[in-house]
Hints:
Chain A contains eleven helices and no strands. Chain A is mainly alpha-helical. The longest helix of chain A has 23 residues, at 52-74. Chain A starts with a helix and ends with a helix. With 260 residues, chain B is α+β, with helices and mostly antiparallel strands. Chain B is 48% helix and 19% strand. Chain B contains six helices and eight strands; from the N terminus they run H-H-H-H-H-H-E-E-E-E-E-E-E-E. In chain B, 23% of the residues are buried. At the A-B interface, helix 4, helix 5, helix 6, helix 8 and helix 9 of A face helix 2, helix 3, helix 4 and helix 5 of B.
Amino acid sequence: MKVFFKERKPAYFFLPAFFSISCSCSIANHIPTYYSHIDEASLVEELRGRNPAALGYLYDQYSGALYGVIFRILQHEAISEEVLQDTFLKIWNRIDQFDPEKGKLFTWMYRLARNNAIDRTRSGDFVKSTKTGTIGNLVNMESDWRTQKQTDAIGVSELIKTLPEEQRFVVEHVYFKGYTQSEIADEYQLPLGTVKTRLRLALIHLRNRMDKL
Amino acid sequence: MNLQEYIASGILESYVVGDLNDHDRAEVEDNLRQYPELRQELAKIEQAHEAILLRAAVDPPVAAKQKVMAKISSRDTSPPAEPAPVVPAWWKYAAAAILAVALVNGYLAYNYHARWQQSQQEVDELISQNQQLALDRNRMEQVLDTTVGTLSILSDPSFRKILLNGTENSPQSLAQVFWNPTTNEVYLDVETLTALPSDRQYQLWAIVEGTPVDAGVFDAGEQLLKMKNVARANAFAVTIEPKGGSENPSLETLQVIGNT
């Protein structure tokens, strides 16, 4: 353990520091993020410096969010676990391709996870089950607080319930059932533009109210 | 660009959620680079997006983390073996453009080759036509020479013209002899002698004091002929002899005769 510490850059010691700082910042702002913009830059630098602890930290904070995305698309535990591992390896190996001008680190990770899962549905060894199977998942999550790291996350769940019916519908399908906006439009006979507008309005509604939590 | 409209279209939400194809995504990234207002709006969307996904999180199997950490520490000291990023969007267009140029070039090359071949054929034809014209001209020059020669003899006053009339054997036959007593040259102009079988020929005789002297053989159908030289003659006559001529004329075959 001592050797492990000595070999790492001194920046490693910042990790617990910015963890606690970001936690207190989040609690103060009621924004359910785990790091502020400045912290993200340090985290990315740590990852680029090949510091495994940085990846471990990411895993602790975000594996649940990413696994949820993957599982809702694949509906299969063993394959989803494989894809999750693959995703984190990709994050580790491709961190140099992450460009902060194009969005946040989480968005980039989320897209890696989602594309990975979608690619898997096209591979030979995958048998796709229907998306309606995710309803059970939704019910589980609502009653299962183990995944919650922040008390604010409960607030988000409540906020989703306060959305107008058509907006909630879109949010639930995109985030909790793994649909693309096109798939929603096709399956439910809605114009694509309408689906996009509803998603946008829902996100605006949520973020406005999240500030006030 | 109207930023408000752009934002209101929901394209940034689609970008975050991952619903855009490569081309549209590249366009959004381009616009993000240019407009700080878009980056601000994007940041807010991303916050909401993250919050919802955290809410929707599902715990993975516990053993998964260990496997991930094991895999990365085995590669820890070595550089990642990941392949290079996807080819940027504009390369596809460059490749398509180059391919289009190559195809156009290929077509043009084929086209010009075909035309060149055609030109080559035309050139060859012209050359052979030219050669034909040269031959024709040579022939015509020969004819002209002959004609000029004939004309000069006909108009030369030192040549005596002796008309040979048809005999009982062939009353319609006619011939003319042009005889130059000074140079002894004899030219025969055959007017109307009929064709002979291949084993026979006509023979011209110069009659000198009753004695026939051979002046050459000839065939029908030929124009002004130069015959053997004759020093003295009282008359000229034509008979039919075996091919190659005879020493003495077969007078019974006498065709035409004329006195000088």
